[in-house]
Amino acid sequence: MKYNFDEMIDRTTTDSIKWSPKHLKENFGDEKSLPMWIADMDFRAPQPVIDTLIKRAEHGIFGYGHQSEAFLDSLIAWQERRNGWTIEREWILYTPGIIPALNFIVQSFCIPGDKIIVQSPVYYPFYNIIQNNGCHVVENKLKLKELKYEMDFDQLEDLVKDSRTKLLFLCSPHNPTGRVWTHKELIKLGRICIDNDVMIVSDEIHSDLIYEGHTHIPFAKISDEFANHSIICTSPTKTFNLAGLHVSNIIVKNRKNRNILKHRLETMDIDPGSFATVAQIAAYNEGEEWLSQLLNYLQGNIELIESFVNKRLSGVKFIKPEGTYLAWLDFTELFENYKVLEQFMQSKAKLALDEGYIFGSGGEGFERINFACSRELLKDALERIEKSINLIRGTTISPSS
Ligand SMILES: Cc1ncc(COP(=O)(O)O)c(C=O)c1O
């Protein structure tokens, strides 16, 4: 089946937070702003997922669910096939999302006052999760070298020596910079953390969205030792656009750590919803053809951004993603003040984007653009930026211009 990713589908009638006029007005200043912010896609899910959900809805009984063998096996087969990683059924715990999972992990393995390392600029909810659970964020800021981000291992060596540092949140692939970490980088990071008793929590939610020339390596696949000192968070939701169905899987090989986490989940009585289970099974078992067409389309969107920025947005730099559907654009040459940049995007370009500064240190003056949308919409967004820059070029770029 040939999927049509060019189709523009109205999402304003489906309680989508991304497209909610009220949300756009309140948060981006205009209900007509073009929404390219939160990370979900404007595409319909694979047809087998839609068919399965219709069939499940027609059954009409929506009682409590559980992690059935078919549900667990769909993930096991997916990891084996896509990543060559062999996992066992008993290692898998269900949570209704990765954000809840990260909260449960912090609550299970940290006490207030402990420290957790993040590699900024990074997925901004990491900060809230850590701080709202009474812990401290420690930033191991990434270094930008010739349009590519790298880890700062020297600084990491210092940070892990603090005995209050308990966890490192690894974002793999990395949101928002689009880096797909190499084997060498992961080994170096793992060695530093494990030697200093810091557990790695690897958020691999974007790991199926990888472009040619790059390979995702599940952190726990590297060795038994790495598996025993890590927790892997994964999900079909980014891959197949199922975020509203709330399904994610936490893979914990270490039995002691797994039991600690399992106990917390059981206490909260967390089990998968009727649509979550069947959607995952259909997506992992029958969604591969859709994913391959999607990646092709997204690759075309990356090429559009690259050529548009190079030819028509002088002064802007594009950090080309190796994975994810998020583009990270550097506006620091044009805007000295990141708050002015924010105002520019909202009031002049009429775009709803995730501002770089919310991703922590190193994000100031950048914009994250979600390009999982039709090419027409993406072109509209880029042209809005071009037009607005041309309007103010030659004038001082200040809050009032
Ligand atoms: C790195 C990362 N982790 C987690 C999430 C959210 O996960 P969930 O919707 O499963 O809570 C996102 C969503 O954008 C993300 O980018």
Automatic annotation (TrEMBL):
Cofactors: pyridoxal 5'-phosphate
Keyword Heme included in the entry's annotation: no
Lyase in keyword set: yes
GO MF entry, a single one: pyridoxal phosphate binding
PANTHER family: PROTEIN MALY
Alphabetized UniProt keyword annotations: Lyase, Pyridoxal phosphate
Sequence ranges assigned to domain Aminotransferase class I/classII large in this UniProt record: 46-385
Name used for this protein in its record: cysteine-S-conjugate beta-lyase
Family: Belongs to the class-II pyridoxal-phosphate-dependent aminotransferase family. MalY/PatB cystathionine beta-lyase subfamily.
Domain of life: Bacteria
